[in-house]
Amino acid sequence: MFRHTMLFLGYELKLTLRNPVWPLFGILQPILYLLLFAPLVANTTVGGTMGDTLRLFTPGVLMMIALFGSLFVGFGMINEIRNGYLERLAVSPAWRPAIVLGRTMRDMLVLVVQALLVIGLAFLMGMRASAPGVLVMLVLMAATGLLASGLSYGLALALRDENGMSQIMQFFALPLILLTGIMLPMSLAPHWMQTVAHFNPLYHAVEAGRSLFDGDFTDGSIPLAFGLTLALGALTLTWSVSSMKKLAG
Amino acid sequence: MIIEAHGLRKTFTAKRGRGKTEQVEAVRGVDLEVEAGQIFAVLGPNGAGKTTTIRMLATLIPPTAGTATVAGHDVAKEPGKVRENIGYVGQAGGVDENAPGRDGLVLAARLGGMSRKQAESRSEELLTSFSLTEFADRPIKTLSGGQKRRFALAIGLVNRPPLFFLDEPTTGLDPQNRANLWDEVRALRKQGTSVLLTTHYLEEADALCDRLVIIDHGLVVAEGRPDDLKKEIAGDVVTLRLGDAANEPAQALLSAEPYVKEVRTEDETLRVYVDDGEHNLPHLLRALEAGGLGIQSISLDRATLDDVFLRHTGRSLRDAD
């Protein structure tokens, strides 16, 4: 079982390395936000330096990669369903959960690498964040990758249609982004919006990221973010694995 | 028997909008027996239930009713064991188009339990026997249809399954590629692999299989060896066009002739099933002339599986789509 998961992971990684267009594309928009938006935000924050602003802004950008990158991996799977590839895997001796697990692990790895690239860029732009904080944040990114990937594959297997999936993604993407406090801190938002944001796991992840980058390991948002992301990630992963089992007999 | 199926049924629930559903009976009771080492064909028009049947046997969908034992294991109770002993190539091909063929082969081999070295040498073996070595390291989506299909076949055979399922393997291929694929299927039989294939091309069933079933509307309408089925009807078929209103009197007249086994009308043509057409054709012509019936066109052929289908279902396979 483990062996099959590793086989799929290796295979998918090799494919991604062969054609890294999509992961690179996935960080393009967040990088643009970092380069173009951060200076604007720096100017709106009273007495803020670029370094401070980046510490506040980058965790949000990292969540953006997760939303715009990892959440869309399901589209590739819809293609694989359509051309019969997943079906053939289902009839082979492969352990079925491995089909999803290998892909999810690949997605998590890709997300961590993307996060490293963005953090690197932020450092070049003047961000000085706590190094252990960054490391813990990378772990949180991996957990977020688990959640996003599991959700995406679950949707792909349930809907099996690009149009339906695209509509659902569009519907949820914008509120999720706005309610995460990526653009501006949620403290500026009206009270009702702040309450709603509490239900968004990405909001907690961004708050945790901000604390981690500041080097504050005691903030309550950190365990909350980990707990929420891991719990939801386990749920979505279970969903996509059981959907994969239902793909054939 | 490498496949034994009794009473296979499959009913799908199709949505008809606004919460209503409709039960669609794709397969309504199919019995199959395939001996090891045979090429077995499931022939029928589109929509007959061939693909559903083969998918039930390959454990892709559970039967609604009926039993099937494939490669020694029950499809419903031990699907995992069945899958260890079969290869399957679906209508869509089922290969990962973004990866090079070699990677796909090695992955399939390693999933089947081989070590990396074993997988690589087995892949090399298959690439050579399917003449794919040249194309092995490019993404499969850059290859032609025939090459993609050969890769699909090669990947299915990686673990040397004793039973191989092929669902409409030559649909969409040009005649050259079709002939090549037929050769490859025959080579499989030579190696001792049993093959079950579905097709709607009667030439394919005729050319390849040892035994076949003809399926129409979810039921088996004929079963046996192609030659035996054709002999049941008659050796030869005379196809006539006589002109309007001549069909009925012609049918009556010809049915009375001793060498005529059966006469069937099909739109404007008349199919006359005779024994020993070569020698009886002149008699037939004389009989029609004596009856004052003019012939517009005439041809003499051997009976084909299409005639078998026509006999059992009342429709021609060619028009049945």
UniProtKB/TrEMBL annotation, chain A:
Transmembrane segments: 21-42, 54-78, 108-127, 133-159, 171-193, 222-241
GO MF term list: ABC-type transporter activity
Pfam family, one: ABC2_membrane
Membrane topology listed for this record: Multi-pass membrane protein
Gene Ontology CC entries for this record: ATP-binding cassette (ABC) transporter complex
Keyword terms, alphabetized: Antibiotic resistance, Cell membrane, Membrane, Transmembrane, Transmembrane helix, Transport
Residues annotated as domain ABC transmembrane type-2: 21-247
GO biological process terms on file: response to antibiotic
Cellular compartments annotated: Cell membrane; Membrane
Main location: membrane
Taxonomic superkingdom: Bacteria
Family: Belongs to the ABC-2 integral membrane protein family.
Protein name as it appears in the record: Transport permease protein
Source species: Planotetraspora mira
UniProtKB/TrEMBL annotation, chain B:
Record GO biological process: daunorubicin transport; doxorubicin transport; response to antibiotic
Keywords noted in UniProt: Antibiotic resistance, ATP-binding, Cell membrane, Membrane, Nucleotide-binding, Translocase, Transport
Predominant place of localization: membrane
Gene Ontology CC terms, in alphabetical order: plasma membrane
Keyword Nucleotide-binding assigned: yes
Organism: Planotetraspora silvatica
Entry's localization field: Cell membrane
Ranges for domain ABC transporter: 3-242
Gene Ontology molecular function terms on file: ATP binding; ATP hydrolysis activity
Family classification: Belongs to the ABC transporter superfamily. Drug exporter-1 (DrugE1) (TC 3.A.1.105) family.
UniProt membrane topology term: Peripheral membrane protein
Superkingdom classification of source: Bacteria
Name under which the protein is recorded: Daunorubicin resistance protein DrrA family ABC transporter ATP-binding protein
